[in-house]
Design goal:
By secondary structure, the chain is mainly α. It has a domain of 95 residues: Serine Threonine Protein Phosphatase 5, Tetratricopeptide repeat. It has 12 helices and no strands. Helix 10 runs antiparallel to helix 11.
Length: 228
C-alpha cells in the first residue's frame, strides 16, 4: 500500500517529481566519469553501427561493378577467366574473398559452384553452393539441384536425393519443379528405393500434367510398377 502511495505522489505531486530530478542531477554531478563513459559507449555503438552499414554499402557497390566482367566471362563460357579474373578484373574467387559480407559475394558463390561443377571439381562445387543462400524462387532451388548433380557425379546418391528433394519442394512451380522431381526419382532408383522414386514420378503426373516431363514420368513409373 505504501508503495502505491509513493507512486501516486510521484505521478501527481510536482514537488516529489522535483525532488527526484534533483536527486538524479546530484548523482550525475558526483559521477561525471561514469556518465561520460556511458554516453561515450553509446555513441561508439551507434556510430559503429552506421559506420558499418556505410562500409558494407560502399563494398557492395564496388563488388557489383567487379562482378560485371566476371558474369560476362561466365556467359561467354570463359570459365577460368570468370573464376580467376583476367589480371585487370576480379574473378568470382577474389570477389568472394575480398567482399565476403556483400550480396555480390553471395551470388559469386553460386557462379563459382556452377563453374566448378562444369569443370568436374565436384567437391569444390559443393563447397561454394553451401555458402550460397537466397530466397529467390528460381535461383535457390537451382543451387540445390546443382548440388544434387555434384553428389550424383560423386556417386553419393543419398545426398543427391536429399538436395533434389530440397529443390523440388522449394516454392514449387510448373517450369522447373518437374525437372527436379525427375532427378530426385533417378537418385532414388540408384538407391533401389523404388517406392520413393514412384512417389516422385506420381507427383509429376498429378501436379504437373502439362509439363514436358509428364510422359516420361508415366513411362518410368509404369516400368517400376511392372517390376514390383
Amino acid at each position: 500500500m505504501a508503495k502505491k502511495e509513493e507512486n501516486k505522489d510521484l505521478l501527481e505531486n510536482p514537488e516529489v517529481i522535483a525532488e527526484k530530478v534533483e536527486g538524479v542531477e546530484h548523482w550525475i554531478e558526483n559521477n561525471p566519469k561514469i556518465v561520460f563513459g556511458v554516453v561515450g559507449a553509446l555513441l561508439l555503438v551507434v556510430g559503429g553501427y552506421f559506420g558499418f552499414r556505410y562500409y558494407v554499402g560502399t563494398q557492395e557497390e564496388v563488388a557489383q561493378k567487379e562482378m560485371f566482367q566476371a558474369v560476362y566471362y561466365f556467359e561467354a563460357d570463359s570459365l577460368n577467366l570468370a573464376l580467376k579474373g583476367d589480371g585487370n578484373n576480379l574473378g568470382f574467387e577474389q570477389i568472394i574473398d575480398d567482399f565476403g559480407m556483400t550480396d555480390a559475394a553471395n551470388l559469386a558463390n553460386f557462379y563459382a559452384g556452377a563453374i566448378c561443377l562444369k569443370q568436374g571439381k565436384y567437391q569444390l562445387a559443393i563447397y561454394y553452393f553451401e555458402d550460397f543462400d537466397s530466397d529467390d524462387i528460381l535461383i535457390q532451388p537451382r543451387a540445390y539441384s546443382l548440388m544434387g548433380d555434384a553428389y550424383m557425379e560423386l556417386k553419393d546418391y543419398e545426398s543427391a536425393s536429399k538436395y533434389y528433394s530440397k529443390a523440388s519442394n522449394y516454392k514449387p512451380n510448373k517450369f522447373f519443379t518437374p525437372t527436379y522431381l525427375m532427378k530426385e526419382a533417378l537418385a532414388y532408383e540408384k538407391l533401389n528405393q523404388n517406392d520413393k522414386a514412384k512417389q516422385a514420378y506420381q507427383r509429376i503426373i498429378d501436379e504437373f500434367w502439362d509439363s514436358s516431363e509428364y510422359q516420361n514420368a508415366r513411362k518410368y513409373k509404369a516400368r517400376l510398377d511392372s517390376n514390383s
